[in-house]
Structures are given as structure tokens and as C-alpha cells.
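User: Sorry, folds how?
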Amino acid sequence: MACQLVTGGAGFIGSCYVLYARRHGVRVINLDKLTYAGNMDNLDALRDDTGHIFVRGDIGNAELVGHLLQQYHPDAVVNFAAESHVDRSIVDPEAFVRTNVLGTSTLLRVVREWWSGLAREEASSFRFLHISTDEVYGTLQVGDKPFAETTPYSPNSPYSASKAAADHLVHAFHETYGLPTLLTNCSNNYGPRQFPEKLIPLMILNALESKPLPVYGKGANIRDWLHVEDHCAAIARVLEAGQPGRKYNIGGHSERANLEVVRAVCEILDDMSPSVSGPHARLITFVTDRPGHDFRYAIDSTRIEEELGWKPEYDFDSGLRETVRWYLDNSSWVENVRSGAYRQWLTLNYGDRGIAE
């Protein structure tokens, strides 16, 4: 049975991948620090699954990572562990440096030291896959060509800068030490079990409670939306057939302006959970734009589609309806994740922009 060490496997994308891997017979050693966005409820379906071994810990803990590698001898390390929210990086950039840069550096070093002692065949088949973001490329304007793997890096937020640094480290460990690394840069993910600080779940949950729906600026910023299940399928395909040292962009072919997304959420809720006070769009409230807000992201997925045969299966409209339905049907998950720390974060980030909690 294949075995993978997955870091950050209790978060949104990481937990989806862990569930995907287990459905496909992969034994998973799941290392997660369980910070605010790590949620064991995401893994509830694996509660009695002996093929899923959860370990609470930090990728920056070299001794722990080394122990797990020696004990389980994984065929691959898949690194999801990261601080991942731009707004939080603006408030506390050093936290992003600690996890995304220093943590990734430690993980790479320990993995490389362990890998260098493997037998030739085992070392040749091993892979280190690092999950990154399209935000490292900077920003686009309407009409600009989408980001390709050759697009120069130009990060504009502490978050994207920290991810860019991690990407460079991954590349350097391949070039310097020969570590068989793979790198993926994805567009905005959406789907079930996403932490409610992100746009789509925040809009869904605020609308259900008749709270303001905070939209930055005029809502004109454009993102390419990728369903998390499509992302996980792409990751599995890269692990299976990707060329070591190569990077692959993963996009959903679904560019939408933020205001368009919010209005679509409102229309779906009007259908699935109508409010006696009127259409949910009445709650849309424009707030002061965040500093350094990138205007547009767009991904060119030609490489992964032509070289590896992957394409997204979800279209955005049906994927969004499915996502809204999931949040409506899983109120206990929502209540468990919306801790006091989460409410304090909303106040900290939106309070000075006129958004009532």
C-alpha cells in the first residue's frame, strides 16, 4: 500500500486531499499543528480508519518530522501546511514567515537528510510535493495573459511573499541536492469544509444570519475559482506522473469578479433558504479595500492538461450550488468551527470598516 506523509491535513484543502487519498487506498500519516483553521471535524469520516494516522505537530519540529519519516517510510511528502489568508498576513506577517518560510525550510532539510539515506530505487521513486498559490505571480489586469509556470514572481502581500519564498526553497532543494520535488500553484479554492474567513463561506454564513456581506472596494477584483475536489485530483495526478523539478499550475477555468460571486451566493440562498426580510443581496455592504489588493488572478493550466491529462470536472455554477447546500446541511460543523477566536478575528479585520459583528 502506498504511504504518504501529508502536512496540514486537517485544513480545508489538506483534509479534502486526505479523504481523497484514503478513497484511493493510500495510507496517510497526517501531521497538523491544529491552529485556528485546522479542524478534526473535517476528518470525521476517518475516525475509525486505521489507514489514517493523525499526529498533532509542527512541520518546524525537525525531531518529530524525522521520527515520522523513519517510522513510516512514506513514498511521498505532500506539504499543505501553511498560513493562507491574506488579511491575516497583513495583521501578523511574522506568523506567515515562521510557518511558510522557516517551517518549509525545516521540512525540506529533514526530508532531504532522510531521503539521502534511502536505497537507490526507493530514493528514485520518492516525491516531495509542495502546494502553493497563484498569488506568488502578483496581479493581472483585464486582457492580460493568465499566469503560466514561466511567469516571473511578483508577490504583493506578506502571504504571497512568504509562499514565494517557500517555492524558491523547494526549487533550490531540487537543484542543489537533487531532491525529487514537485510544485503546484493553484487558483482560489472553494467547496465544503472551508474555514469561514474566506469569501464564499463568509458570505453564506453571514447571509443566513442577516449580517452584512462585506465586499472590498467595488467588488471588481477577479479570481479564478477551482473546486477543491478538482484540485485534489490534480495533486494526485502530479504525484503520479509529474516530472521531478517541475511545477504545474492548476486552475478552474472560472474567472469571476468578487461581486459576481457574492451575488450568485445570494441568489442560491434566495432559492434554498429564502429570508422573510427580502433578497439576501440587500445585505451586500462595500467596505474599504484592503492594502495591496491584487486586482486579478488567472491561471493557464495548459501544462498539466497536456502533459498529465488533467482537467477540472466541476463548473462553477453547479459547484457553488453544491457548496451552499453543504453549509446549509452541516450546521453542527459550522457551529463547531466558529469559535471565539474566529469571532474576534472578524472584529479585528472588519471592525474598523463599519461591519457589525
